[in-house]
């Protein structure tokens, strides 16, 4: 576990990849929420 934490957050490349992954998940969840709100209204 410590190896993966050091690999992801110990160097700039791993940190940038984590930022990209979390940003992508945030954008996808925002788009899904917008589609859900738009389709819920009659």
From TrEMBL:
Q: Which UniProt keywords apply?
A: Membrane, Transmembrane, Transmembrane helix
Question: Which residues are listed as membrane-spanning?
Answer: 12-36
The superkingdom of the source organism is Bacteria
What's the protein name? DUF3149 domain-containing protein
